[in-house]
Amino acid sequence: MSTQQQSAAAGALKGALAALVGGLALRAVWGAGQGLLPANEKLPSPTGETVKKLAEQRGVTLSDAQQRAATLGMYSAVMLGWGAVFGAAQARFSPPLLASSLALGGWIYALNFPKATGVLPRTGVLKPPSEQTTAQAALPVAAHVAFGLATAAAYRAID
């Protein structure tokens, strides 16, 4: 394995660990934002709703404990995966940390939420932002910015 490959692999591991911190920040912002929304505007957990949809499509009934475990597992795997991509890119290309952290959060948001490109509206998990209130639409943006920034801060702190 070349030094460059080792560096990218080390960066991927570091990024995956950093993304666990980013995932906690995302959850904290999501939870705080939910607390500010009126009861009739609260958004469901995108990961939890995805787990429910996948189980329904397969004819599987999950207990509450299984639902929580599957949601945590899926959420953690997604965070670790995006963090590994982020870390490998940081190690290989050394882009400015602030710019790449914002790009990370923006990229994940763009893949999941908008009507035209988002997996969540296309699979019926969440309505697209264009069909939500301003506060509802802003919540995932803020949460994903927090994810990117917290992941980058943790990445920088890990050595």
In words, what does this structure look like?
Helix content is 75%, strand content 0%. With 159 residues, the chain is mainly alpha-helical. Helix 1 packs across helix 3 (64-93), helix 1 runs antiparallel to helix 6 (134-157) and helix 2 (46-57) crosses helix 3 (64-93). It has one domain (3-44, 77-157).
Quick structural gist:
The chain has 159 residues and is mainly α. The chain is built from six helices and no strands.
The pLDDT mean sits at: 95
The residue ranges in which pLDDT falls below 50 over 5 or more consecutive positions are none
**What is the terminal-to-terminal distance?**
21 Å
Oligomer: single chain
- Helix fraction bin: over 70%
Number of domains: 1
Largest sheet: none
Beta content comes to under 5%
Helix/strand structural class: mainly alpha
Put simply, the count of helices is 6
Count all strands and give the number: 0
Q: Tell me the overall shape.
A: globular
Q: Please provide the ordered H/E string of secondary-structure elements.
A: HHHHHH
Rg of Cα set? 17 Å
Structure characteristics:
mainly alpha; 75% helix; 0% strand; globular
Topology, please?
Elements: H1 3-36, H2 46-57, H3 64-93, H4 97-112, H5 119-122, H6 134-157
Helix pairs in contact: 1-3, 1-6, 2-3, 4-6
